[in-house]
UniProtKB/TrEMBL annotation:
Top-level taxon of the source organism: Bacteria
Species the sequence originates in: Agromyces archimandritae
Keyword field: Membrane, Transmembrane, Transmembrane helix
Protein name (record): DUF2892 domain-containing protein
Membrane spanning stretches: 15-34, 40-60
Length: 97
């Protein structure tokens, strides 16, 4: 392998995803503005979320570093390779009992 699976970024949104993120940010920001008089704490939290989603939409990057899960090679080495032909017929099952 050339690189570690944990170093591969998972968040690579396309143009459509970024447009949807922008619309979601707009809706969350509108909610935050509407909640300022009644619940200012909720409005601040929603405003921070809206800023994060806006940053994601503009830059195309994740604001939170999302990484691929590491694969433990030693743990999967004990299992048979699943890329070979698997016979599920009744005749092959008799040999296993």
């Amino acid at each position: 392998m050339t690189g570690s699976p944990s170093a591969a970024p998972v968040c690579r949104p396309g143009a459509g995803t970024r447009i949807v993120q922008g619309l979601v940010a707009l809706m969350v920001a509108a909610f935050a503005v509407g909640e300022v008089p009644e619940q200012p704490v909720i409005a601040i939290i929603a405003g921070v979320v809206a800023l994060g989603v806006t940053a994601m939409a503009i830059t195309g990057r994740c604001t939170i570093p999302v990484r691929a899960e590491r694969i433990d090679e030693e743990a999967i080495a004990e299992y048979d390779d699943a890329r070979r032909l698997v016979d599920l017929s009744a005749a092959s099952q008799k040999d296993r009992t």
